[in-house]
Amino acid sequence: MLISENVLLKPYNTFGISATARYFAPFANKEELEALLSDSRVTNHPRMILGGGSNILLTKDYDGTMLKNEIKGIEILGEDNEHVYVKAGAGENWNGFVQYCIGQNLAGLENLSLIPGNVGASPMQNIGAYGVEIKDCFHELEAFHLHDRKVVKFDNAACNFGYRESVFKRAFRDQFAILNVTYRLNKVPHFNTSYGAIEAELEHMGVKELSIRAIADAVINIRTSKLPNPAEIGNAGSFFKNPSIDAAQYDSLKAAFPNLVAYPLPDHHYKLAAGWLIEQCGWKGYRNGDAGVHAKQSLVLVNYGAAKGDAIYQLSQQVVDSVQEKFGVTLEREVNII
């Protein structure tokens, strides 16, 4: 068990923010986590579980203990007539796990290729892309309660999944460390190509026979073409959620802005494209020092080098204010502010 002091967190967050943690400790299994939770340097200070660091913005130094989840391992647990159940440690790289499943010809996660972060964050955020969300193939997870010191299992219903939401972001926020996640994957694929530019990209690729590998490659091509690589430009992917509005507000906005980009939802609401709203407010490609809005995707705020987390946060607030003023719509941050 190793607890380090005054650790620079720049390598541990995809925004590349140069904040420090008072204490920092990795754990590779439940037993190591339990031992850390008995150490006074952890028990006497605030603590936070850190995964891949791809969905946080550090606005200041962390005066507590960062516990880095490094639980690894991928295991096929069993199968039935239609599904195979695969368990992955929370510290596994998400895209690496997706590519493993594709290599085993197991379907369901291919549309979620190249999303940054680790497996443990996938149910916390109910990550989603190109018409697929984690809840569609999630089976269960095991999480360690940081206070009660016991392992608790959560099935799909217990996670209370919503749009980029789960019980771990609300009622149980900061109470659990996810240990592993089990997915129910399909032996026979149900291809989902209708969202975004997947069909056009498949045609551009010259794909004649659809496969989960072809869809994954198309998603990777699309994401690579419009989203910055965190290894080159600091970012956390989509910074804001796509807002939902009722039919009356949609009708009013559509009348005022005929080119409004929106998608109907089953509950008679409409989901607006936050990127379009932000772009209409003139933010696309904006830069102030090293804090900016990406030139190809307005949903993505970026650190061009040495931006402070607080500068990026202030920029995000300016974006929120301008969208509220122009459209009467309040954007919600998807990224966790620390």
Spell out the key features of this protein.
26% helix, four-stranded mixed β-sheet, alpha+beta, 20 strands, five-stranded antiparallel β-sheet, 10 helices, 338 residues
Structure description:
The protein contains 10 helices and 20 strands. 40% of the residues are buried. Helix 6 crosses helix 7. The model has no long low-confidence stretch (mean pLDDT 95). The two termini are 25 Å apart. The chain has 338 residues and is an alpha+beta fold. A hairpin with a 7-residue loop joins strand 18 and strand 19.
Strand order of the largest sheet: 6-7-12-10-11
- Shape type: globular
Largest sheet entry: 5 strands, antiparallel
Number of strands: 20
Number of DSSP helical runs: 10
Spans of at least 5 consecutive residues with low confidence: none
Determine the structural class based on helices, strands and strand pairing: alpha+beta
* Rounded average pLDDT: 95
- Radius of gyration equals 20 Å
Q: Kindly, what is the distance between the CA atoms of the first and last residues, rounded to a whole number of angstroms?
A: 25 Å
In terms of DSSP E residues, the strand content is 25-35%
